[in-house]
Design a protein that fits this description.
Tscrpt_elong_fac_GreA/B_fam, two-stranded parallel sheet, 135 residues, Chitinase A, domain 3, alpha/beta, kinase, RNA polymerase binding, GreA/GreB_C_sf, 3 helices, five-stranded mixed beta sheet, Nucleoside diphosphate kinase regulator, globular
Amino acid sequence: MSHQTPSGLPPSIVVSRRDAARLEAMLEAPQWQHDATAEALLGELVRADIVDDADMPAGVVGMHSRVECVDETSGEKHTLTLVYPQEADAGAGRISVLAPVGSALLGLSVGQSIDWATPQGRPLRLRVTGVHAAG
């Protein structure tokens, strides 16, 4: 099951106003111009449902959220924290929002899945099983 709506597009995501403003400002920096992942993230932000921080639904992945997910193909569990590029540390599970899996996780809700290939090319289907807000 790919994550698509009847229109063929991925479902729109929910992003807090603060995260959207910080991400848009970051993406305006020269180093992200013509970067395919940055352009894809900007496209997601354009389609996103932007909500006030206080109205952000529980169980939605935002910046600095700790995300529990399971690989539906292997049953392997992962805990990832979605961070800005300068904070990334893959060994510590701190995944940049500009890494392909990071940009795919932004705005997902508990129960939603993404198909993703590891840097080694192994296909994964990650299902979000828990989201813990930054604290």
